[in-house]
Amino acid sequence: MAITAACGFEWQELNADAVGLTNGFSLNGTAAYSTAQSRTGTASIRINPGSGGTGYIAGPLDTYTMFGLYIATLPSVQRLIAGGNSAGNVSLRLNSDGTIGYYSGVSTLVGTSSALSTGVWYWVGFRQVTGTSVDLFTIDGVAAVNGTVTVSGVITGLGCSLTELSAIDLYFDDIVWDSAGLLSSKKVGLLVPTADSAGGTGWVLGTGTALGGNGWIAEDNKPPVGVADLTAGSDTKQIRNATASANSNYDATMTTYTAAGINASDTVDAVFPVVATAAPVSTNAKQGTVGVSSNPVITNIALGVGGTSGAFWAGSAGGTYPTGWKISKGTLTLAPSVTIGTAPVMRITQVTSSTRIAVVCAMGIVVVWTPVVVARVPYSTPYPQLLAH
Fold first, then answer.
1. Do residues 200 and 345 share a domain?
2. How many domains does the chain have?
């Protein structure tokens, strides 16, 4: 296992959620955030085009991509639901009977799964890399199609990017990338601030008033709700630092892993911190770092390259989110040693000794974990009928 990225759509905003995906993503056609149905947490992406319509997530596929799939309504004719149908590409296509075909190129069927039911979340693994006699497509960790393919290009898309003549209704959640192979069932959650752990010199609420133990209220919004610096009413939307005290930390106590739905017998596979920052001016922009100070310790690294590299500045003055706000990801940490019932503490550091302004409107830790086996009959490949005696 070598997880490279993950996204659970919990921020419910493209810029924040896309930081977990190497190529970012966009929503097209009918694709939209939904809280009506989710596999983990509170949000997913719903795709429900009518006949001849489209709805898809562009961006989040790579050589090994796993995701949660919920079929609300089956199509009356076959519809593409992952990948592409050009020469050298592979795809998954959902049939009217609930089976899914794995295709190579435009029309070569490599194999077909057993029928999936509506109203059930499945864990789907999709291989988009050349292989001989390998698992190409898995459902709930069980091989659905094994075969041989030659792949010359990865198509980045989940959902219905073609215009087949049938309505369909799907939900996607918990996308995980891996560079080594298809993975057993995973879940993706988001830990957000629940309290101030420590506020170093200069850290105040959005209007400049003292934190007073309330900085976390400005950092737990989903989606983020940042506004221009010192805007009236911004105490619940962001925190700021305008002092010349170098290396000043703001630490937030986060949701416990238990509260996020992780059980004692589950395995935490990966974690990475995410932060949204801004500044009102670029001149001498303050440098910043992001990390986790405990459970687990993830050493702070420089903020992302958007705007001024490593700085809070995002390329334009921070305004109503997402205008002028930069999303930065801390170090992706695999197989961390964590205490499930203990809250981690996330850290943002204002590095520069300058009275220029640093602003933060969202902090979170993305978590990938392996749940214990659920108490439902797992997907299995079809067995031949027993011979009569």
1. yes
2. 2
